[in-house]
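Students often ask why inverse folding is considered easier than folding. One informal answer: many sequences map to the same fold, so there is more than one right answer. In these notes we will look at a single instance of the problem. The structure comes first.
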Protein backbone atom coordinates (compact mmCIF):
# COMPACT_ATOMS: atom_id res chain seq x y z
CA UNK A 1 0.00 0.00 0.00
CA UNK A 2 1.38 3.46 -0.92
CA UNK A 3 1.55 6.14 1.78
CA UNK A 4 -1.05 8.24 -0.09
CA UNK A 5 -3.63 5.42 -0.08
CA UNK A 6 -3.41 4.90 3.68
CA UNK A 7 -6.10 7.21 5.08
CA UNK A 8 -6.81 8.59 1.61
CA UNK A 9 -9.96 10.54 2.45
CA UNK A 10 -8.42 12.29 5.47
CA UNK A 11 -5.23 13.18 3.60
CA UNK A 12 -7.16 14.52 0.62
CA UNK A 13 -9.26 16.70 2.95
CA UNK A 14 -6.09 18.04 4.61
CA UNK A 15 -4.48 18.82 1.24
CA UNK A 16 -7.68 20.45 0.02
CA UNK A 17 -7.97 22.50 3.20
CA UNK A 18 -4.35 23.68 2.92
CA UNK A 19 -4.80 24.55 -0.76
CA UNK A 20 -7.94 26.58 -0.02
CA UNK A 21 -7.18 28.24 3.32
CA UNK A 22 -3.47 29.10 3.12
CA UNK A 23 -3.82 31.47 0.15
CA UNK A 24 -6.60 33.27 2.00
CA UNK A 25 -4.59 33.77 5.17
CA UNK A 26 -1.34 34.71 3.42
CA UNK A 27 -2.69 37.94 1.88
CA UNK A 28 -3.94 41.21 3.25
CA UNK A 29 -7.76 41.17 3.31
CA UNK A 30 -7.70 44.75 1.93
CA UNK A 31 -5.42 43.83 -0.96
CA UNK A 32 -8.16 44.35 -3.52
CA UNK A 33 -9.75 47.42 -1.99
CA UNK A 34 -10.15 50.26 -4.43
CA UNK A 35 -7.37 52.85 -4.47
CA UNK A 36 -8.70 56.44 -4.50
CA UNK A 37 -8.39 58.06 -7.91
CA UNK A 38 -8.02 61.72 -8.81
CA UNK A 39 -9.26 62.81 -12.24
CA UNK A 40 -9.24 66.61 -11.88
CA UNK A 41 -5.59 67.45 -11.08
CA UNK A 42 -4.06 70.25 -13.11
CA UNK A 43 -0.35 70.40 -13.98
CA UNK A 44 -0.27 73.83 -12.30
CA UNK A 45 -1.09 72.21 -8.91
CA UNK A 46 2.08 70.12 -8.83
CA UNK A 47 5.09 72.47 -9.05
CA UNK A 48 6.67 73.19 -5.69
CA UNK A 49 8.54 71.30 -3.00
CA UNK A 50 7.05 68.12 -1.58
CA UNK A 51 8.24 66.69 1.75
CA UNK A 52 8.19 63.12 2.98
CA UNK A 53 9.69 60.58 5.33
CA UNK A 54 13.02 61.32 7.06
CA UNK A 55 14.01 64.46 5.10
CA UNK A 56 12.75 63.33 1.68
CA UNK A 57 12.29 66.28 -0.66
CA UNK A 58 11.04 66.37 -4.22
CA UNK A 59 10.90 69.70 -6.04
CA UNK A 60 8.86 69.84 -9.23
CA UNK A 61 9.22 72.82 -11.55
CA UNK A 62 6.62 74.04 -14.08
CA UNK A 63 8.88 73.06 -17.00
CA UNK A 64 8.80 69.34 -16.07
CA UNK A 65 12.16 69.19 -14.27
CA UNK A 66 12.64 67.67 -10.82
CA UNK A 67 15.14 67.71 -7.99
CA UNK A 68 15.05 64.61 -5.79
CA UNK A 69 16.49 64.35 -2.28
CA UNK A 70 16.68 61.11 -0.25
CA UNK A 71 13.76 59.37 -1.96
CA UNK A 72 13.27 55.65 -1.28
CA UNK A 73 12.30 53.01 -3.82
CA UNK A 74 8.69 52.01 -4.19
CA UNK A 75 6.99 48.65 -3.69
CA UNK A 76 9.58 45.83 -3.32
CA UNK A 77 12.47 48.24 -4.02
CA UNK A 78 11.80 49.92 -0.67
CA UNK A 79 13.03 46.75 1.02
CA UNK A 80 16.42 47.23 -0.61
CA UNK A 81 17.08 50.10 1.84
CA UNK A 82 18.61 52.60 -0.58
CA UNK A 83 17.71 56.29 -0.87
CA UNK A 84 18.67 58.41 -3.86
CA UNK A 85 19.19 62.06 -4.66
CA UNK A 86 19.56 63.69 -8.05
CA UNK A 87 17.74 65.37 -10.88
CA UNK A 88 15.18 64.23 -13.37
CA UNK A 89 11.83 64.89 -14.97
CA UNK A 90 8.17 64.59 -14.04
CA UNK A 91 4.85 64.51 -15.82
CA UNK A 92 1.18 64.26 -14.95
CA UNK A 93 -0.34 61.37 -16.84
CA UNK A 94 -3.70 59.66 -17.28
CA UNK A 95 -2.01 56.55 -18.67
CA UNK A 96 -2.75 53.59 -16.39
CA UNK A 97 0.61 53.13 -14.69
CA UNK A 98 -0.30 52.85 -11.04
CA UNK A 99 -2.87 51.14 -8.84
CA UNK A 100 -5.94 53.08 -9.98
CA UNK A 101 -7.49 54.38 -13.17
CA UNK A 102 -6.98 58.06 -12.33
CA UNK A 103 -4.12 60.46 -12.87
CA UNK A 104 -0.56 59.75 -11.77
CA UNK A 105 2.72 61.60 -11.50
CA UNK A 106 5.62 59.81 -13.13
CA UNK A 107 8.91 60.96 -11.65
CA UNK A 108 12.10 59.80 -13.35
CA UNK A 109 15.56 60.13 -11.84
CA UNK A 110 17.86 60.70 -14.81
CA UNK A 111 21.03 61.78 -12.99
CA UNK A 112 21.87 60.39 -9.57
CA UNK A 113 23.99 62.78 -7.52
CA UNK A 114 24.05 60.75 -4.32
CA UNK A 115 22.77 57.72 -2.50
CA UNK A 116 22.60 56.50 1.06
CA UNK A 117 20.97 53.84 3.19
CA UNK A 118 17.91 54.22 5.40
CA UNK A 119 19.03 54.18 9.05
CA UNK A 120 16.72 51.31 9.98
CA UNK A 121 17.70 49.05 7.06
CA UNK A 122 18.64 45.73 8.63
CA UNK A 123 19.33 43.50 5.66
CA UNK A 124 22.14 43.90 3.15
CA UNK A 125 21.41 46.84 0.89
CA UNK A 126 21.46 46.58 -2.88
CA UNK A 127 23.34 49.29 -4.73
CA UNK A 128 21.13 52.28 -5.51
CA UNK A 129 20.10 52.55 -9.15
CA UNK A 130 21.59 55.28 -11.32
CA UNK A 131 18.19 55.90 -12.95
CA UNK A 132 14.75 55.08 -11.57
CA UNK A 133 11.07 55.85 -12.21
CA UNK A 134 8.43 56.24 -9.51
CA UNK A 135 4.69 56.26 -10.13
CA UNK A 136 2.90 58.42 -7.60
CA UNK A 137 -0.79 57.95 -6.95
CA UNK A 138 -2.74 61.16 -6.24
CA UNK A 139 -5.35 61.81 -3.59
CA UNK A 140 -6.99 64.88 -2.16
CA UNK A 141 -6.86 65.51 1.58
CA UNK A 142 -8.67 68.09 3.68
CA UNK A 143 -6.29 70.83 4.80
CA UNK A 144 -6.54 74.18 6.54
CA UNK A 145 -8.91 76.65 4.85
CA UNK A 146 -6.13 78.86 3.45
CA UNK A 147 -4.29 75.90 1.91
CA UNK A 148 -7.22 74.36 0.04
CA UNK A 149 -6.85 73.70 -3.66
CA UNK A 150 -9.33 72.52 -6.28
CA UNK A 151 -12.65 71.33 -4.89
CA UNK A 152 -11.57 72.38 -1.37
CA UNK A 153 -8.98 69.65 -1.02
CA UNK A 154 -5.22 69.69 -1.47
CA UNK A 155 -3.28 67.10 -3.47
CA UNK A 156 -1.00 64.54 -1.87
CA UNK A 157 1.45 62.35 -3.75
CA UNK A 158 1.99 58.81 -2.53
CA UNK A 159 3.18 55.38 -3.54
CA UNK A 160 2.96 51.94 -1.98
CA UNK A 161 6.08 50.44 -0.45
CA UNK A 162 7.18 47.04 0.75
CA UNK A 163 4.98 44.15 -0.22
CA UNK A 164 2.30 45.62 -2.55
CA UNK A 165 -0.28 43.45 -0.79
CA UNK A 166 0.31 45.34 2.47
CA UNK A 167 -0.66 48.73 1.04
CA UNK A 168 1.80 50.70 3.19
CA UNK A 169 1.93 54.25 1.85
CA UNK A 170 4.83 56.67 1.42
CA UNK A 171 3.26 60.13 1.36
CA UNK A 172 4.65 63.44 0.13
CA UNK A 173 2.90 66.64 1.18
CA UNK A 174 3.41 70.10 -0.23
CA UNK A 175 5.85 72.22 1.77
CA UNK A 176 4.14 75.06 3.57
CA UNK A 177 5.39 78.58 3.13
CA UNK A 178 4.84 80.91 6.06
CA UNK A 179 3.56 84.30 5.01
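Output (designed amino acids):
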Amino acid sequence: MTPWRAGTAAKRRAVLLAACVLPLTACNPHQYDEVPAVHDARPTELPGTWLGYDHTTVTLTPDGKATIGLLDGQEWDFDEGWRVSGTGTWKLTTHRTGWNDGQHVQLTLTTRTGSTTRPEATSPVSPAPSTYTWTFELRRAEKAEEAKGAEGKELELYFFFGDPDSRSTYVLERQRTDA
